[in-house]
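Thread amino acids onto this structure.
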């Protein structure tokens, strides 16, 4: 167990170093603060900690690490907002330059008016010299023109002054809002730093307390070891002395026992002999012995006359008696050895009992010290838990409720064809580098907004996938949140965040904050975008599964379940109908736009993702064109954008339905069903009725919209192309059927994308065959 504890402590040491590095970076100091360095225990101190205290200490460090990461993220967000403020100042400077240019033009107009006045005065002089009557009518006309031009000049001056005053007011308001936002962020950062400093101090105090416990524990252990060693040495010496004395006593006792045994045996033999021969005591024996001696003398006298055989028999009997006595002696020796072994075993048992009692006293002292430390840590933990319960579980979302209040003025969206032209111009100059997208890309992008809230932008690196989403959000005055997808994402917690039951806090990630922001008062009538950068680095069907299902639900039923049960004081939007304080609605004015590359580091999209999304493949950019820098005074209204989509869908619905019916009755559709197993589903028909009318209203045609929709739905790899079970002749037959069927509903736009993919698939088959 001690070995495993050391291994865990060694594994956690890099986390401590990482924590110190983050603290150092946050304070702008490459050297670690003395308080933080003092607050982090050494590896030896961690080894000496009890398991429970060490685990709680590591959990506190992990929580502090997450808090620091969130603080760093806030600071990066503050830097980003500062960069946006600088960009706004740059835009304002450009607007100021434009205003100065208008003033220069006005001065030129005034100069022209002065020149015309001088010309009129010259003509009046000519009239006085004889042309008065002839030029009177012309002079009247010129004076009327002068008055009209002067009135126009006055109006231009008034309008220019009004625009300049409004621009200054907007600039002042924006600067004040930015100053307030920056001050609020600075205050929040200062509070976070203060909280972090308090955590450092608490951590330092806790470390000192743990260090004191460790020193007390070491002192107790040293005293215990010293006492135990001293008693052990005394006991060893006493045992050695007792063993030597016991050995000496045992030798003396052995000799005494041997002598007594011999004496006892002699007495026992004598008694047995006496009893055997019927003698009551030794005196009778002596009398008998005397008689026997007398008889012996007589026998000796008669022995001379006895035979040799009688002597041998008597000798054998005596030998048997001797053997019997030797066997009895061995039995007595074994009994004595057994008694000695039993005495030694009992002595060792007594010593072990004394040792265990001593160890028990030491362990009881150690337990009392640890119980005191654990009680102190539990009290500390209870205090921290009580303080944590006073905070909101959704800190970032609750902060939005306080900061994002009050609506903002919005502008009506113009007609879709006008909007497409304006967006192309605005997108071109929205970012630092010019972006030149073809008109068709803008039309298809608008159609995709009307069709689905999930977009997938494919293409090689550098084709402007990320830039299109960022520039569009800026062009319409919306908000775009960038979310870099990581290769290790596995579930929705990686995208939205997770709830920490120990801290009773939900760690809200950027995507969840963007979803909530889209429903707040200042953003609910604006376009909001979540940009999933490198969307296919991980499987979207795993981390985006819940959102993918929610987007398929009716608008009133789109809910994200954030917690299993309602938490105290949830954010305002989680009080809405059907949310129950634990769910968050998915707003209609929010689009998820994912960029996707195709290489060895990325994952493939499943059919269910492709079928629900608007897919665009961006290729090379358009030729550069001249554009004007636009300064958006007001963001476009999301509600008015939806009205324009609905108007286009109603206006062109009949034409689209007729085109779909003609396409379904063609040989092209029959070939798709019989040879490829592909048919028209309800989802594809619904998407066509949403997508194609908007493309048409934005300046495109039915053929342009259907060509894109069919190419991304039916002509992608695994559907018509990229299949090994389709022969070359079938592909050529499908190509002919498509070319023949297309003019029935659009003679002006060929299915270029579908034919391009078919031709490439036919060439691939020809090369393989």
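Threaded sequence (769 positions):
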């Amino acid at each position: 167990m001690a070995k495993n504890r050391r291994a865990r402590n060694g594994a956690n040491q890099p986390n401590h170093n990482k924590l110190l590095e983050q603290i150092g970076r946050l304070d702008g100091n490459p050297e670690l603060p003395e308080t933080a360095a003092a607050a982090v225990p050494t590896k030896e101190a961690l080894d000496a900690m009890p398991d429970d205290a060490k685990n709680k200490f590591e959990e506190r460090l992990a929580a502090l690490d997450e808090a620091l990461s969130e603080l760093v993220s806030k600071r990066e967000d503050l830097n980003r907002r500062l960069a946006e403020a600088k960009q706004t100042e740059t835009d304002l400077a450009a607007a100021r330059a434009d205003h100065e240019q208008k003033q220069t033009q006005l001065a030129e107009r005034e100069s022209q008016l002065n020149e015309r006045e001088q010309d009129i005065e010259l003509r009046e002089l000519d009239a006085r010299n004889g042309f008065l009557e002839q030029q009177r009518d012309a002079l009247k006309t010129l004076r009327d023109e002068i008055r009209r031009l002067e009135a126009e000049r006055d109006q231009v001056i008034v309008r220019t002054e009004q625009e300049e005053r409004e621009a200054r007011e907007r600039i002042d308001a924006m600067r004040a809002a930015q100053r307030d936002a920056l001050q609020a962020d600075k205050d929040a950062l200062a509070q976070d730093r203060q909280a972090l400093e308090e955590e450092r101090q608490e951590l330092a105090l806790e470390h000192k307390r743990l260090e004191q416990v460790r020193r007390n524990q070491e002192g107790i252990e040293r005293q215990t070891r010293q006492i135990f060693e001293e008693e052990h040495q005394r006991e060893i010496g006493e045992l050695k002395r007792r063993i030597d004395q016991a050995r000496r006593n045992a030798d003396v006792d052995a000799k005494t026992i041997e002598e007594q045994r011999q004496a006892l045996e002699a007495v026992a033999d004598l008694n047995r002999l006496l009893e055997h021969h019927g003698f009551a005591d030794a005196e009778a024996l002596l009398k008998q012995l005397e008689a026997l001696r007398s008889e012996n003398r007589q026998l000796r006298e008669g022995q001379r006359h006895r035979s040799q055989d009688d002597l041998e028999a008597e000798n054998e009997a005596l030998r048997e008696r001797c053997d019997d006595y030797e066997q009895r002696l061995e039995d007595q020796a074994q009994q004595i050895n057994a008694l000695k072994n039993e005495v030694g075993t009992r002595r060792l048992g007594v010593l072990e009992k004394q040792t265990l009692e001593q160890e028990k006293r030491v362990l009881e002292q150690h337990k009392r010290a640890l119980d005191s430390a654990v009680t102190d840590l539990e009290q500390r933990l209870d205090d921290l838990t009580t303080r944590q319960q006073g905070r909101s579980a959704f800190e970032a979302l609750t902060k939005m409720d306080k900061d994002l209040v009050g609506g903002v003025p919005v502008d009506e969206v113009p007609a879709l064809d006008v909007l497409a032209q304006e967006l192309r111009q605005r997108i071109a100059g929205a970012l630092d580098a010019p972006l030149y997208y073809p008109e068709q890309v803008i039309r298809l992008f608008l159609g995709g907004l009307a069709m689905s809230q999930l977009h997938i932008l494919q293409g090689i690196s550098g084709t402007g996938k990320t830039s299109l989403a960022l520039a569009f959000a800026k062009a319409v005055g919306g908000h775009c949140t960038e979310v870099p997808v990581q290769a290790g994402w596995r579930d929705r917690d990686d995208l939205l965040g997770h709830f920490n039951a120990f801290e009773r806090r939900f760690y809200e990630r950027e995507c969840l904050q963007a979803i909530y922001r889209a429903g707040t008062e200042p953003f609910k009538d604006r376009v909001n975008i979540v940009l999933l950068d490198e969307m296919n680095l991980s499987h979207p069907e795993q981390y985006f599964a819940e959102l993918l299902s929610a987007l398929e639900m009716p608008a009133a039923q789109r809910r994200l379940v954030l917690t299993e049960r309602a938490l105290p004081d949830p954010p305002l939007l989680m009080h809405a109908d059907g949310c129950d304080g634990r769910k968050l609605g998915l707003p209609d004015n929010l689009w998820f736009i994912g960029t996707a590359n195709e290489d060895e580091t990325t994952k493939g999209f499943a059919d269910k993702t492709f079928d629900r999304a608007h897919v665009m493949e961006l290729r090379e950019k358009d030729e550069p064109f001249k554009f004007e820098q636009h300064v958006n005074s007001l963001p476009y209204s999301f509600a008015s954008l939806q009205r324009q989509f609905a108007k286009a869908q109603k206006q062109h619905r009949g034409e689209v339905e007729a085109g779909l019916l003609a396409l379904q009755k063609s040989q092209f559709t029959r070939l798709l069903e019989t040879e490829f197993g592909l048919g028209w589903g309800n989802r594809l028909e619904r998407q066509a009725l949403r997508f194609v009318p908007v493309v048409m209203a934005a300046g495109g045609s039915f053929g342009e919209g259907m060509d894109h929709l069919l190419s991304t739905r039916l002509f992608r790899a695994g559907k018509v192309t990229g299949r090994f079970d389709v022969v070359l002749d079938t592909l050529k037959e499908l190509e002919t059927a498509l070319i023949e069927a297309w003019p029935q509903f659009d003679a002006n736009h060929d299915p270029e994308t579908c034919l391009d993919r078919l031709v490439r698939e036919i060439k691939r088959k020809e090369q393989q065959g």
